[in-house]
């Protein structure tokens, strides 16, 4: 099966929230979030299995929990759970390193919304320092993982702005 005919599911974890996106033949077709699934590793595993059962992906994309980055504590435990669940499935399991190509996740969300106009209204605004992170930011992180896996064409970022 070629990459063009595959359905890929990317899952991401941020503080207090899980998110997934599904790309089918290069088109973004599904996005979903879960607050309950972020409560523990077992809840995250259950939510991932539910998404897999519902969306029937050929490819699972998760973030490498052992790569250096900003994830810590519960988020790292959830990422390790995602990788472990993926190993037990009869689908291609891609564990990718997340690279920072933007100054912050909000700039990255704007860039991704240019590629996926359906998400334009979901681009979160950066809250004040005392505010909570917008729930939908995790969707854009899942899309970034899809791009890191090579399942989306490169688009935007710091390297594109350097001349």
What does this structure look like?
It is a single chain. A hairpin with a 2-residue loop joins strand 2 and strand 3. It contains five helices and five strands, in the order βββαβαβααα. With 163 residues, it is α/β, with parallel strands linked by helices. The protein is globular and about 40 Å long. Helix 1 (41-55) packs across helix 2 and helix 3 crosses helix 4 (137-148). The protein has one domain: 2-Layer Sandwich (Nucleotidyltransferase, domain 5). A five-stranded mixed β-sheet has the order 3-2-1-4-5, sandwiched between helices. Helices cover 34% and strands 21% of the residues.
Taken in chain order, the helices and strands follow as EEEHEHEHHH
Distance between the termini: 38 Å
Name the poorly predicted regions: 154-163
CATH class: Alpha Beta
Number of continuous helical runs:
5
- The count of DSSP E runs of length 2 or more, i.e. the number of strands, is 5
User: What name is given to the CATH topology?
Assistant: Nucleotidyltransferase, domain 5
CATH architecture assignment: 2-Layer Sandwich
In a nutshell, what does this entry contain?
The chain is 34% helix and 21% strand. With 163 residues, the chain is of the alpha/beta class.
């Amino acid at each position: 099966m070629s990459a063009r005919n595959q359905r890929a599911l990317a899952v991401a974890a941020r503080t207090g929230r899980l998110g997934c996106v599904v790309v089918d033949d290069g088109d973004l077709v599904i996005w979903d979030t879960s607050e309950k699934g972020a409560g523990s590793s077992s809840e995250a595993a259950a939510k991932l299995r539910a998404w897999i059962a519902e969306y029937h992906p050929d490819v699972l994309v998760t973030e490498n929990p052992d790569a250096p980055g900003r994830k810590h504590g519960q988020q790292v435990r959830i990422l390790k759970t995602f990788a472990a669940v993926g190993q037990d499935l009869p689908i291609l399991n891609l564990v990718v390193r997340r690279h920072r190509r933007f100054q912050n996740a909000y700039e990255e969300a704007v860039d991704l919304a240019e590629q996926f106009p359906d998400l334009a209204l979901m681009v979160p605004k950066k809250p004040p320092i005392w505010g909570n992170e917008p729930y939908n930011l995790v969707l854009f992180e899942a899309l970034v993982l899809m791009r890191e896996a090579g399942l989306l064409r490169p688009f935007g970022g710091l390297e594109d702005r350097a001349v």
